[in-house]
Amino acid sequence: MFNTPFTARSVLRVAGAAALGLGLAAPALAQDCQPSKWGADDQLGAANMLSPERTLEAAKLIKQGKSQPLGITIGPDTPAFAPRSLSMQVIQPNQTRGKDALGYGGGGVYNDDVIQMWFGIGSQIDGLGHLGDHGRYYNCNKAEDISATTGLTRLGVHQIPPLVTRGVVVDMASHFGMDVLPAGHVIDEAAFKAAAEAQGVEIREGDVVLMHTGWTEGKLESAPQEWVSGEPGITQDVAEYLASMNVMAVGADTWGVDVVPPPAGQKVFYSHVVLLRDNGIYILETMNTGPLVRDGVKEFMFVLGQARVKGSVQMVINPVALY
User: Fold this and answer.
1) What is the domain partition of the chain in residue ranges?
2) Which of 133, 167, 171, 295 could cross-link with 208 by S-S, CB 3.0 to 4.6 Å?
3) What is the CA radius of gyration of the chain?
4) Are 269 and 256 in contact, with CB atoms under 8 Å apart?
5) Is residue 149 exposed (0-12), middle (13-18) or buried (19+ Cβ within 10 Å)?
6) Taken in order 220, 224, 230, 236, is the CA torsion positive or negative?
7) 110: how many CB neighbours lie within 10 A of its CB?
8) Is 81 helix (H, G, I), strand (E, B) or coil?
9) How far apart are CA 67 and CA 70, in angstroms?
10) In angstroms, how far is CA 161 from the centroid of its own chain?
């Protein structure tokens, strides 16, 4: 892992400074929490917009019969937000000294794998219990009520139904005339709207909206520590705009979607709060958008069925774009 002290300090230093803007008036803000529009007991957020009709409409976007994985390959050396890590061991249980573990009589053998990892590595979905503010998560859930060390008692990713809907991709790198946007490059509401309009990308209710910055293709392999130490990304106003459009999920080809470091005076990762806590909109990180952009794809059928680990906060994913 490239979770070096420098990487951890660089990101957390930004977070700590921004947290100064979050620390006051917590009781008042907590009392102001508004229940979800899907009901005070809802745990699914924007996934409530899934429907057979939306699935059928998305299926009409398959014109060429092509499929593209949106997840990247991960391993022990994949950089991640500190202190996240991954360790895997392939073993041959009970097969020492030539023992026939399967009882075939001819030396039947097999491999198994044992893994210890954080689910927030590589391509991932952030569930509604991932990020909150002032002790509250989506739908006014209190941290002390749901955050058990053995798994979330509410808002777990295992509850998310298969996400099958229309997906769109907006090429922000080309909008700014670059192959790879640099770390700290701001994508604000005006820029996002201008790019979408110029590229003919219409944002509709229930969409999965992805942004291409070139960051992962340009930096992950060639400069992994630089890749995880910062990123281009959106500001809070983009999250608020997309929430107003009632989208289902927002993602990018970056590890955190938000711009890092954030502009002066803005809170780090606060788009996460706007999307997850305030609107129940899922976040998709490190999406493999490059092949879609090169293939001229603007809209596609998005399909995701994540691993259902009870109480999980995030999950490693490999969604599929069909077009």
Assistant:
1) 26-78+120-322, 86-115
2) 167
3) 21
4) yes
5) exposed
6) positive
7) 11
8) coil
9) 10
10) 16
The β-bridge relationship of strands 208-212 and 163-171 is parallel
Q: Provide the residue-wise pLDDT of the chain in tens; the chain has 323 residues.
A: 344 433 444 544 444 444 333 333 334 454 578 899 999 999 999 999 999 999 999 999 999 999 999 999 999 999 999 999 999 999 999 887 778 888 887 778 899 999 999 999 999 999 999 999 999 999 999 999 999 999 999 999 999 999 999 999 999 999 999 999 999 999 999 999 999 999 999 999 999 999 999 999 999 999 999 999 999 999 999 999 999 999 999 999 999 999 999 999 999 999 999 999 999 999 999 999 999 999 999 999 999 999 999 999 999 999 999 99
What's domain 26-78+120-322's architecture? 3-Layer(bba) Sandwich (3.50)
Element (H, E) at 148: strand 147-148
Distant-in-sequence, close-in-space partners of 305: CB < 8 Å, separation ≥ 6: 162, 163
Angle at 310 between CA 308 and CA 316, to 5 degrees: 45
Helix (H, G, I), strand (E, B) or coil at 29: helix
Residue owning tokens 């809170």? 267
Query: How many residues are recorded in the chain?
Result: 323
- CA atoms of 246 and 35, how far apart (whole Å): 16
What is the Cα–Cα distance from 184 to 306, expressed in whole angstroms?
Answer: 30
User: If we measure between CA atoms, which residue out of 251, 253, 252, 255 comes closest to residue 228?
Assistant: 255
pTM of this prediction?
0.91
